[in-house]
Each structure stands twice: as structure tokens, then as C-alpha cells.
Amino acid sequence: MREFVEKMLHTRVEREHVDVSGLPLYLRGLYSLERWTVFGVPFVMASPIENVTVKTMAKHRNTLETALGIPVAFALESATGYRVERMLEAGLAFVATDKQVYLPFLGVALNGGKSHAGGRKQVSIETLSPQAQRLAIMALYGELDGANVTQAANVLAVAKMTVSRAFDELAAVDPSIIVSEGRRRVLRPDRNKMALWRRLEPYMASPVAREHRLTRVPDVGLPPGGVSALSEISMLQDDPWPTFTATKAQERVLGLATDARNAEFDEPEEPACVVQVLRYEPEPAPGCIVDPLSAILSLPDDVRDDPRVAGEIEYVLNRVLGVDYEGNR
Questions:
Q1: Residue 76: what are its φ and ψ, rounded to 5°?
Q2: Contact between residue 280 and residue 131 where contact means Cβ atoms under 8 Å apart
Q3: Predicted confidence band at 276 (pLDDT cuts at 50, 70, 90)?
Q4: Which residue range(s) make up the domain with 94?
């Protein structure tokens, strides 16, 4: 197993013993556990001792990751193509000897056969396009589950070709999110939305195309964005001025576009408000009036690295992505 991974990844795999004393007794007899380190990233390789269903493995993965504090992958010996597909659909990291290496927390999805999108040409992605990112965020909010290209295009109000390319991008960064059902490709996001966010977030960019610092607040009702949006659903303190989001169409209506700049709007150091123009239409999370994931992505790195902000971001993520969280309240 290790030799296969080293051959596929062209790197050395370090192995260590895993202390299982803190694990539930029923798990100790079901898996042989090793701590692997690849590209400097540690994770647990769990080799099933008995035959375990994919559904059960998903539950065990969550328990193991909580107890051990690092990602978990499963070692599959003599795995059938059907089992590999089920593992991908469930969003489980795994290594199937001589077949496939799927370690999404490393950004690795390699196989010796055709792609999992019906043999479509694979694309290489460093950053998701705006519409692919919007599609990913909607999937994280629990929307569009089971939607095909046509259905997603209708919801996003964009061309089917645009959505088809977005499907290609999502399949490239996380093969488990797009599955083939007959001749159709459909969205089947991991039910563990936090795990899905951890896998997709490295490929996401700030949605802000540009921002305007204004001397007055526009009369048009704009949804909050950035820190203002996060302060609506957390204890994060807002800036001295509110931040709003606008689409490019709203930017033109407000007279903020470069070719139609309203002289009434200046760029003061202490603005009345800030308007962030987004690359895509924001998608409010269920039960929210804001798009918290886009708001998080819009924050500069130095702001996100602040311990106080980072703690509130984690609270928002757990709240929005469906994980119980008490927080330090």
C-alpha cells in the first residue's frame, strides 16, 4: 500500500504508530491504524480488518477524526469499481491499491482509468472561476443536491455551457462532488459540509472584484458583506462603517462604475460606508440574510489571521455548515 502511494505521488511516505488508547473499544478491533505523513501533512491510514460498509466507514471516519484530530483515509485492498465509486460519493479519502489514490486534504485525486465524469477531459484548477465558486457555495449551503447541469443553470440563471464548465472545475478539485447517473452529471456534495469546505476552500478566491469607499450610504438597500455580514451572525465587532455588497449591475445603477462615476461619491479615508462589488451573485445561507462563506472569503489574510476574528469565523462555519458548536461565548 505505501509503495503504491509513493509511486503515484513520487514522494516518500513516513509511517508512525497510532496510540489507540483514547479510541472507543469497538473501533480498535475494526481497523489497523497508522499515522502517515505526506508532503508534510499528517493523516491516519485506517485499514479495515473486517468488511465494513461505506456508510459505516463514513460514521467511523467522523469519530476517528474527532478523536485523533487529523484527517483519516481508508486503505482498500482488492476494491471493486462499485466500492470505489461509493467511496467517492461519500467523500471518503482512500487508497485502492493499483487503482486509485484519493486524498482530498492533500489535493490529490489520481487514478489509472478514465475520469469519474464519463471520460471527460480532465482540467487542472488552481482557483475556481466565479460561477464554479458560487456553485460550490450553494452546494455547501445544502442547495442543488442532485441537480444536473440544466437544473443548476436555471437556478443560477446562466448558460448551460457555463455550468458545464463549472461542473468540470468542481470535479477536478474534488471528484466526489460530481457523480454520473446514467448519461447525466449531477451534484452530490458530501453530507459532511465542514469537511467539504476544508477541501474546497483552498481553491476559492476573494469574491470582491473592487470596492468603493463612499461619503454617504446609498439609498438602495444593499445586503451587508465582509465584516458587517459576519457581525450579523456572530459576536465579531463591525468596522466603524458598514460594508455592503453589490453586483456589477447594481454598481452601474448606483453610478459607481468607472465609465459612469458619480462625482457625488468620493473615496474618503473615513467613509460613511464601503460597497464591495462581487464577481458573482451572493447566495444567502439558509436562515440568514447574508452570504457568510463569501463574506469570510472577502476578508484579507491579515484580518482572518487575527485570533479573535479566526475564532468567530470558526463559530460561523460551524453554525452555517451544520455542526453543533458551543464556542467561547
A1: -115, 120
A2: yes
A3: very high
A4: 2-111
Claim to verify: residue 212 and residue 168 sit in the same structural domain: no
CA angle 295, 296, 299 (to 5 degrees): 90
Q: Is residue 259 part of a domain?
A: yes
Query: Among 111, 139, 158, where does a domain finish?
Result: 111
**DSSP assignment string, 148-185:** BHHHHHHHHTS-HHHHHHHHHHHHHH-GGGEEEETTEE
Residue 109: pLDDT band with limits 50, 70, 90: low
**151: amino acid identity, one letter:** Q
Farthest-apart Cα atoms in the chain, separation? 72
285: amino acid identity, one letter = A
**Pick from 192, 204, 143: which is nearest to 322 by CA?**
192
β-pair partners for 42:
37
- Please write the tens of the pLDDT for every residue from 161-202: 889 888 988 988 887 888 877 778 899 888 889 989 999 999
Q: Residue 118's pLDDT is what?
A: 40
pLDDT > 60? residue 140: yes
Cβ-contact 95, 38 below 8 angstroms: no
Lowest mean pLDDT among 73-77, 195-199, 255-259: 255-259
Cβ neighbours of 1 (radius 10 Å): 16
pTM of the model: 0.62
Q: Which ranges in 187-255 belong to alpha helices (H)?
A: 193-200, 226-232, 248-253
Cell representation of residue 37: 505523513
